[in-house]
Amino acid sequence: MSTIETLFGIAGANVPAPVREKIEGLPAEAYPAASSGYIFPPILLKKLLRIFSGADLPRRNLLLIGEPGVGKTSIILEVAARLQIPVFALSCSGKTRFAHMVGGHEFVGGQTVWRDGPLVRAMRVGGVFLANEITRMDAGEQMNLAEVLDGNATITIPDTGEVVKAHPLFRFIATGNSGGYGDESGAYAGERVASVAFLDRFQKIEVKHLGEAEESALIRRAAPDLPAQVLSAMVKLAEDVRKSFVGRGGNLRTIMSTRSVVVWAMESAAYSKIRGIADPVGEALQDTVLTGAPQEEQSAIREIWDRWVASA
After folding, report:
1. With bands split at pLDDT 50, 70 and 90, how would you rate the model's confidence at 209?
2. Using alpha carbons only, what angle is made at residue 267 by residues 265 and 268, rounded to the nearest 5 degrees?
3. Single pTM value for the model
4. Residue in 258, 261, 288 with CA at minimum distance from that of residue 71
């Protein structure tokens, strides 16, 4: 029997995990692939396992809120991969319409046929509909989802008149940077103000960056040959940059996600093997984070990095 401890690497949680049987007829790509070495924040994982359980929940809709690169999407995919839950995803923008989620008619083999969209597919089989950046959608389009997000979780397909009632294990999970109240900082282009009635239908959980110890362990696995003091300085730089991010009231528009720090560490290790690169870590920082950012921000981040290197 699979346990929380074996599936998620959470020590001391040797309890059964609610792993499901795979659904016949679904393509393999409906099931996410698990990444080895993924680090699960314990409290967040426990909350997600509650959402994914078959228990009688007051809300089955979840909105994950957080800065870019904190892993809002990846943690859903990693949990679903281990529990064998199919995921049907859609990336949202200001141009996303309700019809993109529901589906539409297609011309196939000389005939017009109906094709379910990702939302309807998830409702039929009891999977997850993952709406990335749903806070960028038009508020009017969001409210078309009201009957899906309500307790009965049904949807009427406008083109066919069919009423689809959601499978009991269906979950509607969305992500957003600002949480649906717009963005006054200017950090997130395209963020919109959502209807309060729409937001009220979601359980809302904030996803934060990994702690220093967890982030250090992650990049150490990604680049084991880098000196420990360099890895430590990388993590400290990332945290300093995050503290100065405009989304937190600072003056930097550049953000250093865990993802970018991991790539920086991996490229630093690779650049150290290229003859002619005198400063592989600094060169990798430029290529993975700084290039493309305003010059004054590049200089500010370089100054912070030099300070951490000097103290390492």
Report:
1. very high
2. 60
3. 0.89
4. 258
